Amino acid sequence: MFETSLSSDWYPTCAVFDCDGVLLDSESTWLTAQAELFERYGATFTQADEDALMGAAALDFARVLAANTTPHGASADDAAAHEKHIIEVVLEVEENMIERGMERIPGALDTIKKLSKVMPVAVASNSSADLLTRKMQAFGFAPYLTTWVGADDVASPKPAPDMYAEAIKRLGGDSQQTLTVEDSVTGARAAQESGANTLIFTGHGDTGAPGQGRFDSYTDPDFLATLNRWVKAARKA
After folding, report:
1. pTM recorded for the entire structure
2. pLDDT mean for each 10 residues of the chain (237 residues)
3. In the CATH scheme, what architecture does the domain 2-26+103-236 have?
């Protein structure tokens, strides 16, 4: 299924993709890790927590976990020490996410390759910059990207628009002519507020994230037809 409200004569001059859940099938791995961390510290990871934290940076998750597990009546110093400990643990777990298991989403690398032949392409992710670099190199995306932007490369990660604004700046692009691809409400909000046009990847379920279109597979014939039209237009420009 592919649909879009973008006009038939619009095409991108640069593109910025989210990573987890859009290029890599890693969301379920991270959700499992989050639930395990809640359980480790005696808290329950509810559906409401999962929904609220989808697409959030690891640091934001750590602060939520710390707030949920700080002992009742703890002093300010003890609460701060607990949060510091939780942040250290969560960031260590995040750094080991590749080893926990993930793989490329079918067709994602081919899409990046095709676009990179005619326009600059970037990735903007709430992963730490170091982990994002490892992901891009380990899964073969790095050679086809102009740049990538991680959570600690900007003042505020998603849902703030800073990450997409920085990526577009590095690409030398115009936000209104930028294609972004997201899957979460958190990420889509960041992309939309940067002024870019956003397609929502729904291959793992539709989150209801706002955008100018949706698709559930990089191999969908209608998506590929539109992608080829954009590539042809960009090549002629």
Report:
1. 0.79
2. 96 97 83 84 82 75 86 85 87 75 91 98 93 92 98 94 98 97 95 97 91 97 98 94
3. 3-Layer(aba) Sandwich (3.40)
